[in-house]
Amino acid sequence: MRKLAAILSLVVLTALSGAAFGAELVMNGSTTVLPIAQAAAEKYMEADSAIKISVSGGGSGNGIKAIIDGTTDIANSSRFIKQSEVKAAVEKGNYPVPFAVAMDALLPIVHPENPVQDLSVDQLRDIYTGKIKSWKDVGGEDKPIAVVGRDTSSGTYETWQEIILKKERVSPRALIVASSGAMLTTVAKNKYAIGYDGIGYINNTVKPLMVNGKKGSAETALDGSYPIARFLYMFTKGWPTGEIMKFLNFMLSDEGQRIVASTGFVPLRVLK
Known about the structure:
By secondary structure, the chain is α/β, with parallel strands linked by helices. The protein is built from ten helices and eleven strands. Strand 6, helix 6 and strand 7 form a beta-alpha-beta unit.
């Protein structure tokens, strides 16, 4: 009888411990999506203290790899998953499911003192492939262009490659940085640098350029007129259930989309 009571006590204690500690949700991946995920996680945990959400960066490719390996609940990504990644996940019994949670305008950025205001897609391609080497060739000073790019695990790199470079190789002279924040600080410190970053990262330490005469904004991203607009994603390993589904529903709700707007990124719809 005492043994039974002890077992029952252990079961109750275990149940109470589970209730006390609640669920834990793990998210990692894109440094572009990171500010959105962090802000949403904080708000979500404020409303439900029983859940713990951990959020980390590392790049879209690393987040998707974690989904493939089954080591994360949600992978944040600034690009869509590749067919080869889907195949690798399915072979391990994981079925990636995409949820678009925001939009982004990817903006070319320069130092605030740079007089250049607008570049075409072709000019950007020629700068990044090394065909254009001086600012004077695009209306600036007679100074060499310091090209700054992203690492290959970055979804932002993939988007730039697809839309701007058309799969051409980046100049070997380019300085490669590992995060959206590093891109911003690197360009801000170099009067003759050019880089690119998500709209939510832009501040007064850099100057965003127009592309093909179009200013990157929430409006031009939503209406499709800005040439370097993209969706931002959260991927799950299989159709989400439980707390993961609740969190994604929160992300897609008006409250979640207001969080997207508060971080400087673009909500999926116009909010009242």
